[in-house]
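An example makes the point: we let one protein speak, the chain in one-letter code, the fold tokenised, and here it is:
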Amino acid sequence: MLYYAVVFLVIALIAGVLGFGGIAGVSVEIAKILFFVFLALMVISVVGGLLRRGGH
């Protein structure tokens, strides 16, 4: 999922350089959303791993 966030960020940068402001803005928003979803899933995974490790 982090890969897709980076892909949308690159699309946004290229679109911004080429002057496509609307596409760049949408791509940045998608990249932000995907990044925060990835971050939340990572935190859940780490907490779950710690709880599982501490529970045995």
